[in-house]
Amino acid sequence: MPKGLYPSLRHVLLLGILWGLSGCAGGPPIDDQPAGATPSRYFDQSEVMRSWHLDQEKRRLLKGGWQVDGSMEITVKDEVRRHRIELLGRQGSAVTIRLFGPFKNVVMEWTMVPEWLRLINANDRVTLEVAADSKGMAAMAGLAFNPAWLYPAITGCGDDFIDAPSLNGETLSGRSRSGEILAVDAATGLLKQRHRTGMDGKRFSVHYAWPTAQNLAATQPIMPERVEIRLDDDNSKLILSLREWKFFPGRVPGASNINKPSPFPVLYPEIGDGTTP
Fold this sequence. Notes:
Layout: H1 5-21, H2 45-60, E1 65-76, E2 79-90, E3 94-100, E4 106-112, E5 116-121, E6 126-131, H3 134-141, H4 150-155, E7 166-168, E8 171-175, E9 181-185, E10 191-197, E11 203-209, E12 226-231, E13 237-248, E14 266-267
Parallel strand pairs: 6-14
Antiparallel strand pairs: 1-2, 1-13, 2-3, 3-4, 4-5, 5-6, 7-8, 8-9, 9-10, 10-11, 11-12, 12-13
């Protein structure tokens, strides 16, 4: 394997690990109101639920592709790294993360589809491929998680509540069908927080910030401008600052053809360091 592959690979894969972990099962209830706080507005729970369902329906019906530029900040053991990134998605089935170097050149591209995960490292001129399951992620990144959790974490999608949620001041909260604890902004019907506990018992959460000027009646869903993922066990943190989201009826212009053979030798960590013939 080319020299320097794993040190550079580790930082990009950490992004996927943190995102992926944002989708494990269940977590503690959320109390989003400080003790003694007085709600500034009165909300009807049925109307809040209606706003939540309408927003989620837009996200489920999101067609074609989307693209958003932004930046990410990763904090691990008091070390902070910042990168410019581009995210490209396609109807819940594929997500590509492009990491840019100092001269706006793409240095890494990580694509996730239901069947496989592919990381192209332009600096080391090598491609890694693994199966899109927890074993594949364990082989690629050293930690097992389901990559299917990535898309909903980015786009603010959430499952329906499994039981009747509770309205506490300006926050509607309850457990979803996937075991997640969701906190919804009563004024907008948008996700504020989501809490989960992984299969290994580790707890983590996702916190959202949305644009101030919101058109709740728009056909396209409102997309987050900030996504912050926190891991409770070691205080690791990932902050995504996302600018203007763009939607396309089909594939995003300029997106890589995921079915095209890689220009670099392909390595398969799950079965050793062998390359394609």
